[in-house]
Every structure is written in C-alpha cells, then in structure tokens.
Design brief:
Nucleotidyltransferase, domain 5, Rossmann fold, six-stranded mixed sheet, alpha/beta, globular
C-alpha cells in the first residue's frame, strides 16, 4: 500500500510517499517551500507590478503570506478575498475588512478575475501540484491514503483568546485519549472549530482513498519517538521547536504526563530551559507560559522525573543547541526533517488499525512498546 504523508509547516512542506513494498529508507521524500511561502512570493510579484489581488480558495496558514498581503495594502494596492480565503487572515471577517482587505462573494471574485486582476488560489494542500512534482521524475502518484498535517489554532469564539482556545483543545484531546495520535482524525471526524484542518479536508474531496488529518506539532513528537535512542527511555521530554510554535511533551510511566506550548519567536533558550526544568520537576503552571505570550501548560503528573533525558526535533532546533539540558537531536529513520511525516505514518497505524501490522513492520520496530503508545 502507498500513503502520501504531507506535513505543512511555515518554512517547508515535508512530503513522504510511503510504499509498503519498499524499505522505508527507499521511500520517496521531498522538502519543498511551504504553501504560505509560495503565496507570499506571488503576492510580492504583484506588489512589484502594482496589480490588484483577488484571493480565492480556502482557509490556509498565514504568517509569510499575511505579511506580504499587508505590505501590498500598505503600498497602496487593492486586495479582494472571498470569505473562505479571507479567514486565512482572521476568522472574524469584520477584522479582515479593517485590515483593508475587501471581502467579496465568489461571483464578484470571478468578475474581478475576468477583468484580469491577479488571482491567487489559497490552499495548504495542493494535490495536483504535488502530483506534478512527482511526475517530473516519472512517478505516477496514486496513493491509497493521505495523511496530512497543519497547525490549527481553531476558530475561537469572539472575545476568547486564540492561545487559550488552542490549548483548551490540546487538553480536551489528551483527557479523552492519552496518546499522541489523539490529535489525528479520520476524514469526516474533525471538530468543527478546526477550520484550517477542515479546509485541508475540503481540498481532499476528490480523493477516493482514506484520509487522516493531524496537528503538526504532536506529529513531529510522535515521529521523534521512532528514533530508538529516544524510545529507549521510559521517562523523557520531547520538544518540537518549529518555525512558529514550540511544543514539549513530558512522557512517563502513566503515559503523557504533561505538555506546554509557546511561540518560538517569543521565547529565549533560557526561558525554554526553565520551562523544561519545571516540566520535569512537575511545578510548571499554565499562567507562567500563557503570560509570556505562550499557549499554556498542563501537568497530569507532578512527581519529579528521575530520568532527565530531553530529545529535540524541528527546523528551529538550533535554539536548543547550547541548552543546559544537553538535548539529544533526534533523527528518526535518519531524517529529522521528515519527523512529522513519520509521525503521521505512525498515527495512521492507530487510526486505521487494519493497516497497523504492515506499517509497523515497515518501521522495523524502531518504536519499542511504551506506555504512551499502547494506552
């Protein structure tokens, strides 16, 4: 069987074409510019030529694309967006309008396109584009399943902190199912508030096979556990330092014992070391993280860890290079940049247990049975 795993980040989109007939090291991989970076590049070209922009498609990740659109507006040029595309910038369309983006109907967007304004289609998952990339090397992309990951803050109610709303979701999922694959959902099972993941789901509507959708940060942590050095520990901290978000899980005898999440751009190495210290000691409080512009912290077990092993993954992992914790830089199956894809594959085995035997055989037992994986 073949599963296309796509981990969409801020800097890159990391792609693994899993093929159960191959050694997993021989499975095809791509690390390409992220969708939001590609949109930002197109917006910047429009700014240089002074073109008005029409944004269509679905809700996707912001960051670089949003900054480019704001620069386009500040340069005095027009931006139109359909409602679904506009929610890329904020779930509340009134706020989008206040940014200077004019929200228009799908019909108005088509009319603007006919007037030769520059149209950009927004989406995190562009299956035809990925097919073309593989086709350039003579590979016909016909997977049996898709495993896709993006980071989703969720659509918080008006007046509710996006950071707190995101962390409420993390807590709710962990209380419902104490394992990392709790953040993976089959197509059709996504909570309604996960609007970015819902948009990715909508982008798979013409795909007839199985589809799983997951949050990026837990996928990367789950992937790190495929490194046998990491999985050998029964107590440990695994930290994913992403381009925008940093998330650390504490794992122990009772399963997932704690977690905190912060913004990478808002945290120093000294702060991160301190939060990890307190996560180990069982003393970290939610407000300590939230009040420094993070999402929050949660501890199920406040007993101090006896094993102070720390593993780190993520494109910004160099933040931890001089950490006093002397972390181990995880390299699951020899490739750190595909950690999220490997985590997606491992979660796929949980969500589609009929495929678990084949997938776990491919992973060659690099995860040894552990409480946090068998709960």
């Amino acid at each position: 069987m073949k599963i296309l795993c796509v981990d969409v980040g801020t800097g890159t989109q990391d792609i693994l074409l899993y093929d159960s007939d191959k050694e997993i090291e021989n499975c095809l991989k791509l690390v390409m510019p992220s969708p939001t970076l590609r949109v930002a590049q197109r917006v910047k070209r429009a700014t240089r030529t002074g073109d008005a922009l029409v944004l269509t498609g679905v809700t996707m990740g912001g960051g670089p694309s949003q900054w480019a659109v704001l620069d386009h507006l500040n340069a005095g040029y027009k931006v139109y967006a359909t409602p679904e595309a506009a929610r890329t910038f904020d779930d509340e369309l009134e706020k989008v309008e206040r940014m200077g983006i004019r929200v228009v109907s799908e019909e108005e967007a088509r009319q603007l396109d006919e007037e030769e304004e520059r149209t950009i289609v927004l989406r995190d998952f562009d299956y035809p584009q990925i097919q073309l990339a593989f086709a350039a090397f003579g590979v016909d992309l016909e997977p049996d399943g898709l495993a896709l990951a993006v980071f989703d803050h969720g659509n918080a109610p008006a007046g509710y902190s996006d950071r707190q709303f995101r962390f409420d979701y993390l807590e709710q999922r962990l209380r419902a199912e104490n394992r990392l694959s709790t953040f993976a959902h089959k197509r059709g099972d996504l909570p309604d508030h996960l609007t970015r993941l819902k948009a990715v789901e909508a982008s798979t509507q013409n795909f007839e096979g199985e589809v799983m959708l997951m949050d990026t940060a837990p996928a990367a942590v789950l992937g790190a556990l495929l490194d046998p050095v990491v999985s050998a520990h029964q107590q440990l901290i695994v930290c994913n330092v992403g381009n925008f978000h940093t998330l650390a899980f504490r794992l122990g005898a009772a399963g997932i014992a704690g977690v905190f999440e912060h913004h990478t751009g808002e945290i120093t190495r000294e702060q991160l070391d301190g939060f990890i210290d307190k996560l180990m000691a069982g003393t970290l409080e939610h407000r300590e993280v939230f009040d420094t512009m993070g999402h929050g912290a949660l501890l199920f077990d406040r007993a101090a860890l006896t094993d102070r092993f720390v593993a780190v993954v993520g494109p910004r992992r160099s933040l931890m290079r001089d950490s006093r914790h002397q972390p181990y830089f995880a390299v699951p199956l020899g490739d750190m940049m595909i950690s999220g894809c490997y985590g997606l594959l491992r979660a796929y085995a949980d969500r589609f247990p009929e495929h678990a035997e084949v997938i776990l055989a491919s992973l060659q037992g690099s995860i040894k049975p552990a409480v946090w994986e068998t709960a």
